[in-house]
Amino acid sequence: MTEGAPKRGNGSGVPRYSWKAVTALVLAVGALLMPAIVALVLAAAGLVLGLIARRELKREPSLTGGALALAAVIVAAFVLVFDVILLTLPAPAG
């Protein structure tokens, strides 16, 4: 590690992940597996928690999980957009 770089982890060599980032990713991936109405709620919660985690990770250099938080934001946004489109389309006539 270079001299000026911030240290990651808790000093024992094991990185300390942000629980918000992990939870956001679990919610976002869980939204992929749920029906549309439930997925909207899970994806919205995952998106908000992912954005909060990204802000927390910028303030706390001892935490890791930036990639988890970013993945949660991307997946949750995709699920939200897809489900909104799916729910606003008219039902097929038949």
From TrEMBL:
The chain crosses the membrane at residues 24-53, 65-89. Keywords: Membrane, Transmembrane, Transmembrane helix. This is DUF4190 domain-containing protein. It comes from Agromyces albus.
